[in-house]
Design brief:
heterodimer; A: alpha/beta; Rossmann fold; five-stranded antiparallel β-sheet; five-stranded parallel β-sheet; globular; B: alpha+beta; 2 domains; seven-stranded mixed β-sheet; four-stranded antiparallel β-sheet; 15 helices; 15 strands; elongated; transmembrane helix (chain B); cell membrane (chain B); membrane (chain B); ABC-4/HrtB_transporter (chain B)
Chain lengths: ~240, ~425
């Protein structure tokens, strides 16, 4: 674990040598991302390394680029410069289809809100994670359906809700469903973007604990974004992004 | 792929109202295009059957088309006539099985009056190829008896026993209003009585009034050169004393024992000394007439094509408009690992399913219309269409299906270009 925010402007000459290892979940060197038409980079990170199974708490003020960095790591955005590796594979050099497959196989997302397809049932929303990857499907033991039910149970969602349409749930319940989906099929990396920001403190803490416990059980690395430093307690690693 | 189909179905059900409207517009456009095409075919068939059974049309030498229009459609003005004796001579030819003489010129309520013989009822056929049938009454037999076509009866509200007065020449309906012409251009002194009403035939006879040639001659005993002879008036009761053989005819329809004789007889008639006559084969004549009318059909088809284009554009518009609402949906799918190809497949499947549903529903609509509506349409308007898809229609539907699916590519292409993160950001 080595973290050092890049000085502004980025010093591109100081690229440190790196050795891709299979146990490295995330590796970042001199990553820069600018929104189109914007001259100031939204993300400018010199170095980040996260080993498999480690939990990173990513915090910083609003506008510091936390969500953007998370989207870059998840391959939802592409950086203009620098190196970003997931499990030894360079995201920037992968074809789009391979990147999509990597996401389906090994990643789990929990967003701040709007995680679920409103027209699918709770159970089908969780099962979405196993729909686009055969290996993810195969890792659901014994079946994706029973594994999804177990996760919903673990996250303390009443079983009666499984057949309900996602749009009928409260926000707190929706976030639990999203967490269950991210955990389905033993992902290698869970990316959570302020998953508890719309919950009250008690519910937030509970969901937090359940998410981290379950991630620890399946050996997944976790990167959690929050603006609330009070949540950082359960994390081994911390990174504060400077304000832009 | 199974996952995509399930998702597409669930997602489409979620937006069922707007999709149903897009589907409906495709349905209606398909039905319109097919119905126009089928009505055109049906009209063409009816047209070609106007001459069913007639092997030759004989008339005064002149233009082919005017003779055809006059003999088969009872339209246009006669520029020359032929003598009754020429018909008698023709009818005696051993190759001729039957002949129907026609004399036109008078009208009633805008409908042409055809002077002919009872042979007309034996040999003329309706658009379905069956012999003419009467829905009421009997063929004319005596003087001043008339048989009217189905449309005449329906439009003018006539039935057997109705008395009617013929007009001389082609006066338009409802124009003889108190004008001085009224006395001089109508045959008010010799009213006719309707003795029979023809069943709908989907042919020009629907719009005709049939009378005997002798009645026609009797009408004009005291006329000369299109006007009544001044000072001469022969009452209806006295016409029987006169020679009522027709003076002149407009055309003679001929049926042969052997159709193969048609060409030789046509040449003989053209080359015969004496009266300048000509004979035409109705089939090729009608074909050239259809060429003339084909412009209308082509216009209708072009309109149908435009309507189809509009409905396909509507389909693209609905899917594209839905894309705005679906930004988040597609982004969530991408975030859980769906590839660009999955998103493209999702949108293409939807366009394909909507198009094929619309096409099949449109086809079903036309077939149902053909089964349920056509008998009524034929009865009242002489319109209608056949049931059962034809080869070229299947090809058209396949083309439309391909076009609809390709139209789905436009929103799919747009969706593929949307960045995933874009869809996850709540927007104002």
């Amino acid at each position: 674990m080595a973290i050092s925010p890049a000085p502004l402007p980025a010093d591109r000459s100081s690229v440190a040598p790196y050795h891709p290892a299979t146990e490295t979940a995330v590796l970042i060197r001199n990553l820069r991302f600018c929104w189109p038409g914007c001259l100031v980079p939204a993300v400018n990170l010199r170095s980040l390394e996260l080993a498999a199974g480690e939990h990173l708490f990513l915090h910083g003020e609003s506008g510091a680029g936390k969500t953007t960095l998370l989207n870059l790591i998840g391959g939802l955005l592409l950086a203009q410069a620098g190196e970003l590796q997931l499990f030894g594979q360079s995201l920037t050099h992968l074809p789009t289809s391979t990147r999509d497959a990597l996401r389906a196989d090994r990643l789990g997302f929990v967003f701040q809100q709007f995680n679920l397809l409103p027209y699918l049932s709770v159970l089908d929303n969780v099962l979405l994670a196993s729909r686009f990857s055969a290996s993810r499907h195969a890792r659901c033991i014994p079946t994706p359906r029973s594994e999804a039910q177990r996760l919903l149970d673990t996250l303390e969602l009443p079983p009666s809700l499984a057949a309900r349409r996602a749009c009928e749930l409260s926000v707190g319940q929706q976030q639990r469903v999203a967490a269950a989906r991210a955990l389905l099929g033993r992902p290698s990396l869970i990316l959570a973007d302020e998953p508890t920001s719309s919950l009250d403190a008690r519910n937030a803490a509970q969901l937090f604990r359940l998410l981290l416990d379950e991630a620890g059980r399946c050996g997944a690395a976790v990167i959690l974004v929050s603006h609330d430093p009070g949540l950082a307690a359960g994390f081994t690693h911390h990174l504060k992004l400077p304000s832009a | 792929m199974r996952a995509i189909l399930d998702l597409a179905l669930a997602s489409a059900w979620n937006r069922r109202t707007s999709l149903a409207l897009a589907c409906l517009s495709i349905t209606l456009a398909t039905a319109l295009v097919l119905a126009v095409g089928r009505m055109g075919e049906s009209a063409r068939r009816d047209l070609s059957r106007t001459s069913a059974g007639v092997d030759l049309v004989v008339g005064p030498r002149g233009g082919t088309l005017p003779l055809l229009l006059r003999a088969l459609f009872h339209m246009g003005e006669a520029t020359a006539t032929m003598q009754w004796e020429s018909h008698v001579k023709l009818a005696r030819d051993p190759r001729v099985a039957w002949s129907v003489p026609l004399a036109l010129g008078d009208t009633h309520g805008g409908y042409p009056v055809i002077g002919t013989t009872a042979a007309y009822f034996q040999h003329m056929r309706n658009a379905d190829g069956a012999p003419l049938a009467l829905s009421a009454g009997r063929p004319f037999a005596g003087l001043f008896e008339a048989v009217i076509g189905a449309e005449v009866a329906r439009r003018l509200g006539y039935q057997t026993g109705t008395s009617l007065i013929l007009s001389h020449g082609s006066s338009l309906p409802d124009t003889h209003d108190g004008h001085d012409d009224q006395r001089t251009s109508t045959h008010q002194d010799k009213p006719f009585r309707v003795v029979g009403v023809l069943a709908p035939a989907a042919s020009p006879v629907d719009r005709s009034v049939l009378i005997g040639l002798d009645s026609l001659t009797a009408l004009h005993l005291d006329w000369q050169g299109g006007v009544p002879i001044p000072g001469l008036h022969i009452p209806a009761e006295q016409v029987g004393k006169f020679d009522l053989r027709p003076r002149s005819l407009d055309a003679v329809l001929i049926g042969l024992h052997q159709r193969t004789d048609a060409l030789r007889l046509q040449r003989q008639i053209a080359e015969a000394p004496g009266e300048a006559l000509m004979a035409i084969l109705p089939g090729p004549g009608l074909d050239s007439l259809w060429q003339l009318l084909g412009q209308i059909e082509r216009t209708l088809k072009a309109l149908g094509g435009l309507v189809t284009l509009v409905s396909l554009t509507g389909l693209v518009a609905v899917i594209l408009a839905g894309l705005g609402e679906r930004r988040r949906e597609l982004a969530i799918l991408r975030a859980v690992g769906a590839g660009v190809r999955h998103v493209v497949a999702l949108l293409m499947v939807e366009a394909f399913a909507l198009t094929i549903t619309g096409l099949l529903a449109g086809l079903a609509l036309v077939e149902a219309g053909g089964l349920l509506l056509t008998p009524w349409l034929r009865l009242h308007y002489g319109l209608g269409w056949h049931v059962g898809p034809r080869g070229h229609e299947i090809a058209l539907l396949a083309l439309l299906l391909a076009a609809g699916s390709l139209a789905g590519l436009i929103p799919a292409w747009r969706a593929a270009r949307l960045s995933i993160a874009d869809g996850l950001t709540p927007r104002l």
